[in-house]
Amino acid sequence: MERLQLDLAGHRLGIVLERSGPRTAPLWLLLPALSTVSSRSEWKPLAEAVGDQRQLASLDWPGFGDSDRPAIGYDASLLRSALRAVLSYLHTIHPGRHNGSAGCGSWSPHR
User: Fold this and answer.
1) What is the pLDDT of residue 99?
2) Which value, in Å, is the radius of gyration of the alpha carbons in the chain?
């Protein structure tokens, strides 16, 4: 688990990013749903299912999960800025390892 320090909406916020899988595998960014109970843990079953086939990264949005929750407006602009910062960070530490894919929501092995 990593804590990225981002400047968002005039505040310094800690955003939690969790990565799993081999660092040499293609990188997938998994975005949790935006709800009152949203967190990166939504993706744990998928992370366990793909094992060593992919490197997965998932974040807790600002104001959710283990990320900081200051009393600020959590609007689309703030979330977009947070996502851009995370993408920039991942591109910097893993150039050429991402395929541009992103997921949103929950995953379940049950049909």
Assistant:
1) 54
2) 14
On the CB side of 73, how many CA atoms lie within 13 Å of its CA?
5
- Paired residues of 18 in beta bridges: 58
| CA 5 centroid distance within chain | 14
- Provide the β-strand partners of residue 58: 18, 30
Beta-carbon contacts of 27 under 8 Å, excluding residues fewer than 6 positions away, are 54, 55, 56, 57, 90, 94, 97, 98, 99
| 56-107 per-position pLDDT tens digit | 999 999 999 999 999 998 899 999 999 999 999 998 887 765 555 545 554 4
The residues, any chain, with a CB within 8 Å of residue 52's CB and separated by 6 or more, are 21, 22, 25
Q: Given this model, what pLDDT does residue 106 score?
A: 47
Those residues whose C-beta lies under 8 Å from the C-beta of residue 45, and which sit 6 or more positions away, are 107, 108, 109
pLDDT at 107: 47
